[in-house]
Design a protein that fits this description.
The protein has about 100 residues and is mostly beta strands. It has one domain: Quinone Oxidoreductase, Chain A, domain 1 (Alpha-Beta Complex), CATH 3.90.180. The strands form 2 sheets. The protein has a 3-stranded antiparallel β-sheet, with no helix packed on it. It has a two-stranded antiparallel sheet with strand order 1-2. The chain is elongated. The protein starts with a strand and ends with a helix. This is Putative alcohol dehydrogenase. InterPro entries: ADH-like_N, GroES-like_sf, Zinc_ADH-like. Pfam families: ADH_N.
Length: about 100
């Protein structure tokens, strides 16, 4: 999948690249993202001023997204074709720590 990846802190280190498409585990959803917002927290993460010791790299810096569910884990309670919006605090896909 294509994703904006933060390889290191600083806007120059945010690059469009390829990331492995994750397979959702039990209770998780895989969402094809159609829109995101760049908010203050995302910019602070990119700049390295928001909890830099907790930021794994590479990272997809996104706090808010909207899209369509394409797959659901075994215990997820969401229809496969649902459209959703999400405010992400910490998720496996966004952190790329699958």
């Amino acid at each position: 999948m294509k994703a904006w990846l933060l390889k290191d802190f600083g806007l120059d280190n945010l690059v469009l690249g390829e990331a492995e498409t994750p397979v959702p585990k039990a209770g998780e959803l895989l969402v094809k993202v159609g829109a995101v917002s760049l908010n203050f927290r995302d910019k602070a993460i990119v700049d390295g001023i928001y909890e830099p010791h907790r930021v794994p790299k590479p990272l997809i810096p996104v706090s808010d997204a909207a899209g369509t569910v394409t797959r659901a884990g075994s215990t997820a309670h969401q229809a496969r074709t649902s459209r959703i919006s999400a405010s992400v605090r910490r998720c496996r896909v966004a952190l790329l720590n699958t």
